[in-house]
Automatic annotation (TrEMBL), chain C:
Pfam families in the record: ABC_tran
Full protein name: Phosphonate C-P lyase system protein PhnL
SUPFAM superfamilies: P-loop containing nucleoside triphosphate hydrolases (SSF52540)
Residues in ABC transporter domain copies: 2-227
Keyword Lyase assigned: yes
Cross-referenced PROSITE patterns: ABC_TRANSPORTER_1 (PS00211), ABC_TRANSPORTER_2 (PS50893)
Family: Belongs to the ABC transporter superfamily.
Keyword Lyase: yes
Keyword tags: ATP-binding, Lyase, Nucleotide-binding
GO molecular function per UniProt: lyase activity
Superkingdom assignment: Bacteria
Amino acid sequence: MTPLLQVTDIAKFYGHRIGCKDVSFDLYPGEVMGIVGESGSGKSTLLNCLAGHLTPDQGQVNFDTRTDGLRDTVTMSEPERRMLSRTDWAFVHQHARDGLRMNVSAGGNVGERLMAVGARHYGDIRDSATDWLGRVEISADRVDDRPTAFSGGMQQRLQIARNLVTGPRLVFMDEPTGGLDVSVQARLLDLLRGLVREMNLSAIIVTHDLAVVRLLADRLMVMKDGHVVETGLTDQVLDDPQHGYTQLLVSSVLQV
Amino acid sequence: MTDYNFAYLDEQTKRMIRRAILKGLAIPGYQVPFASREMPMPYGWGTGGVQVSAAVLTPEDTFKVIDQGADDTTNAVSIRRFFEKTAGVAVTEATTEASVIQTRHRIPEQSLRDDQILVYQVPIPEPLRFLEPSEVETRKMHSLEEYGLMHVKLYEDISQHGAIATSYAYPVKVEGRYVMDPSPIPKFDNPKLEMAGIQLFGAGREQRIYAIPPYTQVVSLDFEDYPFEASKADCACDLCGATDSYLDELIVDDEGGRMFMCSDTDYCANRRAAGHVGAQGVPAQGDAA
Amino acid sequence: MINVENVSKSFTLHNQGAAVIPVMAEANLQVAAGECVALVGASGAGKSTLMRMIYGNYLAASGRIMIGDVDVAQAEPREILQLRRHVLGYVSQFLRVVPRVSTLDVVAEPLLATGTDRDAAHARAKTLLANLNIPERLWALSPTTFSGGEQQRVNIARGFAYDYPAMLLDEPTASLDAANREVVLQMIEAAKARGAAIIGIFHDDAARARVCDKEIDVTGFTPQAAA
């Protein structure tokens, strides 16, 4: 099996400071990888390098494209990369308002990606938008409401629908449950798990919430000061951490 | 003549504007940035159109200005006088006699010929602006031909109003490439954007010039199941009886009485002179002014 | 089916003066298909540690842990995930699930993960829950609010939903009443009969005697050097 994403030796510097360095891993279809670490550990920098929002200073991010097989997304042309990010990639922001158009209706938000790849039939676009709202548990009669009228959890679910409507294969998530209260988090986690399984999605989830990765991620990558200090199976890393920093991180979680 | 340089602007500036115009004609629908000058009128009164007119006028030209189709509004009269004074060119209200026509928010009903230039005043040249506030992003979207967002606007229209409610500044795609704002002309005028004359668009405050060369394909954006319609009030002109022209609605008394009449005053006057009479019109007395 | 060879394990506590605590050395164990092996030994002797290493939950320091032809001690995460999905089942003492998910879905999940269609997976889950005497009115609820015994039975149902060729059972009959204990023991016997290789930890002597073919005392794997 070919990896969907093959990351080799990624580094990003901010002047003399290290954003992230020496990051390499393979992600296979259907795999969900968590990246954990404290604020400033470089996990968001890494995610942005992988998703094409930042240009890494070195390294390769090879993605298994549908037409040409593995292609380095760092060196591919910008139109190609932007096309990927509208079709095969999805990016779920921590704050829904960063990933939504707040002055456009829910249906328009979901439909945008379809229209971006050429859909020109209003009825069909609206039907898929309504269908997707249903899949993220937003009732069809909210299709013409703007996200400003939605709760935080609904906004986040809308953002997920907007991202998944074109059937992407790789989803980047930056603290997808951050800022939501715990009952809403649980619902969102369940939804994401179901979608990941049904659509055979691969995902990279950046979070500092170890409970979230335990439930969502198959594998874990622990980052500190821009470096990867430990990788492995999620439950193995959390239950039998090898690196001192991971041990500290795991033992610092408040028990409920 | 006066002490002004011909058509107010200095020769260097006109040359700079002409270069922008030529570039615009070479890349139909593409917004060319230019170093817009301060003009002796406020922004929003047609400073972009005036600079374009100044750059294309020659002493032999005959100049016409319309504002929403009318030759006799303050804006139109002021701009016409401005060029009379600074360029000494001949002026006219007759569409067929003009070689350069500056317009605000209309295209004349009379088809233009290939020796005529139509200059539009443009308030906001960027059709994507209201959905994407970042200029960096909109320029990138134009360069990569990412126009999905434009349809989001039309989608929103249909979802809220049951039909595409955008009735003016209706977005078009020029020669299969650039999505363009045709300035706030009524969508009734959109089909006329494919014409024999040269069309130049000037946005003074936004410092952009763009153009449509003669006989260029201009397609109004729409959905397969909600096709574009060039709509107008479903009436005839009360003065000249025309059913094929764009109409203004005028409230005539405090009892709600109203009448419809051609927004293009020259077109209406010509029809009346030719003997056409509308429901509330009176036969022409031989003077078409 | 399961073959543990010369496995050792130590914990390094980096945040407590980098203390190294050896907990296991030269562990050896073989389980054939259709066989059930009990791990015995005093509390803290390393029964759960060994079982977790076999499951890949703990990292082995050295040695080989073969499940079929996969060496858990060396395998990539995705190989272990694949193994857990199709070959190696585990019934732990604790139920760890996403809150809000219904009991039926929790039990059906291992089947859905292997590509079983939804209706078949739910049918199987219903049979298991009924056999384990979980009242039907609870099936639509999340098991997070259930009693300890109910959670334990949901866990067992989930662990037995898919017919794994190898299974690890950590105290499957603890906190169960006689009737449910009998159901679970029969399920274990049935699993053996279809050829599953099973490793179990049972504090219940009678249960152990009934289903296990041999006992391995993990005290024998205690490192001699340990203080």
